[in-house]
């Protein structure tokens, strides 16, 4: 038992000794800076791996303070950007009971043509050479984001994402003149930050680099078939939509019966999505058949076939009714159309298109809806105390029906809507009291 206690005491003493040898190191004890200096940082680390905190003349510092606290592999730093004379003072790094303090003096209009190293040697300022803010790479190849730093005294270069996130994936490697990305994909297209730090002065510079990964066209949806079925009826219109991702942007071409379609389509781009829509007026049955969409850029070509087949025009809705109204909305109910045996199940209604306009306007606005089990189709953001003309049509895979006759509905005045809301509130309150009273009796 005596030996066991002695070993425990020795172990405890060893742990205390190990803890006592842990020390805090600061990159700088005193700094003199100019208000012309754009940015710099001071780094603190504990050689025992303990976490450290920073405080300044105005209290504890953090990720959103000025200066802000940054954490990196070389330590925990305070980052100054656009310093002012009022930033002068003591900044303390703490770990447990141990502290180290750095004193900062900020002056105006110093000569910043060079920087003094600790040995008094004049060092040239940090600059980025051969570092374009916009760089490209080809998907599934190795790409180097170039960021070459000149000047200073052996500056430290680090990389991060624009949002401050750390780059930890093993596919990324920091090399002498940049950041190597192995097997780059389009998901790596983003903005990166190359940061250079002058260890002797704490001065830092940042360069934003936008990486654009080029790739051949690919369809927007991961699950797709090379041939897609489409339907249309004689006298109606067919809209064939081809959507792709491509970098650089793709050019579209439509083919019908092996001939290039010269007109009837339009191309748009929304973000990274490119879209080409071919609109076909079905004047007769000769328009049925296969239409080919081709999307092409310098890295490849993608094809998709649309098999346009005969469809059936849906019947119009039976009616439109008003389910409810407010000062800025009309809640509509739409009667299901009559479906006969002549209409196959594949041509069943999928939704409705509602057109509406103030009684005094000439132009219709429209909104498409999927079928609602609750039979509720609200029109929102309307004008108060206004008469609206409303009509509806049925939608199926082949197109759209004729429209119903026009119905007229009116939104409430602001005063009526407010009164209705107050009345409803009182009714709910009254029922709550009744339920509470009978619940207490029960």
From TrEMBL:
Transmembrane ranges, per UniProt, are: 423-441
Q: Which Gene3D superfamilies match?
A: Immunoglobulins (2.60.40.10)
Q: Name one Pfam family in it.
A: Ig_3
Q: Which UniProt keywords apply?
A: Immunoglobulin domain, Membrane, Signal, Transmembrane, Transmembrane helix
Can you tell me which residues the record assigns to a coiled coil? none
Q: Which residues form the Fibronectin type-III domain?
A: 316-416
Q: Where is the Ig-like domain?
A: 125-210, 217-307
- Xref: InterPro entries: Cell_Adh-Cytoskel_Orgn (IPR050958), FN3_dom (IPR003961), FN3_sf (IPR036116), Ig-like_dom (IPR007110), Ig-like_dom_sf (IPR036179), Ig-like_fold (IPR013783), Ig_sub (IPR003599), Ig_sub2 (IPR003598)
What does UniProt give as the signal peptide span? 1-23
Record carries keyword Membrane? yes
- Record's protein name: Neural cell adhesion molecule 1-like isoform X1
């Amino acid at each position: 038992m005596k030996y066991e206690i002695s070993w425990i005491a020795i172990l405890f003493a060893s742990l205390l000794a190990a803890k006592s040898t842990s020390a805090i190191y600061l990159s700088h004890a005193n700094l003199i800076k100019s208000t012309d200096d754009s940015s710099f940082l001071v780094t603190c680390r504990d050689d025992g791996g303990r976490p450290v905190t920073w405080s300044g003349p105005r209290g504890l510092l953090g990720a959103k303070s000025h200066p802000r606290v940054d954490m990196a592999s070389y330590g925990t730093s305070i980052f100054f950007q656009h310093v002012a004379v009022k930033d002068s003072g003591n900044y303390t790094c703490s770990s447990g009971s141990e502290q180290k303090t750095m004193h900062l003096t900020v002056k105006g209009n110093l000569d910043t043509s060079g920087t003094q190293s600790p040995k008094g040697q004049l060092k040239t300022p940090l600059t980025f050479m051969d570092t374009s803010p916009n760089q490209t790479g080809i998907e599934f190849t190795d790409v180097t984001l170039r960021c070459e730093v000149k000047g200073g005294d052996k500056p430290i270069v680090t990389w991060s994402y624009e949002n401050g996130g750390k780059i930890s994936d093993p596919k990324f490697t920091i090399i002498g003149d940049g950041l190597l990305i192995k097997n780059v994909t389009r998901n790596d297209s983003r903005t990166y930050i190359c940061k250079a730090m002058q260890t002797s002065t704490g001065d830092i510079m940042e360069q934003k680099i936008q990486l654009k990964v080029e790739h051949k066209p690919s369809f927007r949806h991961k699950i797709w078939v090379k041939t897609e079925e489409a339907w249309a009826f004689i006298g109606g219109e067919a809209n064939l939509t081809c959507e792709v991702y491509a970098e650089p942007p793709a050019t579209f071409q439509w083919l019908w019966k092996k001939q290039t379609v010269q007109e009837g389509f339009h191309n748009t781009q929304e973000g990274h999505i490119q879209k080409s829509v071919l609109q076909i007026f079905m004047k007769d049955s000769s328009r049925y058949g296969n239409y080919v969409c081709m999307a092409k850029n310098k890295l490849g070509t993608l094809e998709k076939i649309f098999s346009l087949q005969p469809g059936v025009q849906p019947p119009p809705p039976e009616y439109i009714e008003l389910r409810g109204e407010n000062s800025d909305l009309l809640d509509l109910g739409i009667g299901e159309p009559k479906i006969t045996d002549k209409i196959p199940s594949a041509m069943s209604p999928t939704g409705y298109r509602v057109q509406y306009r103030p009684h005094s306007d000439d132009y219709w606005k429209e909104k498409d809806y999927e079928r609602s089990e609750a039979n509720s189709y609200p029109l929102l953001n309307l004008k108060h105390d206004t008469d609206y003309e409303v009509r509806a049509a049925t939608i199926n895979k082949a197109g759209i029906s004729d429209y119903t006759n026009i119905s007229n509905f009116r939104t409430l005045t602001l005063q009526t809507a407010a009164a209705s809301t107050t009345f409803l509130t009182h009714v709910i309150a009254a029922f709550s009291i009744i339920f509470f009273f009978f619940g207490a009796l029960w």
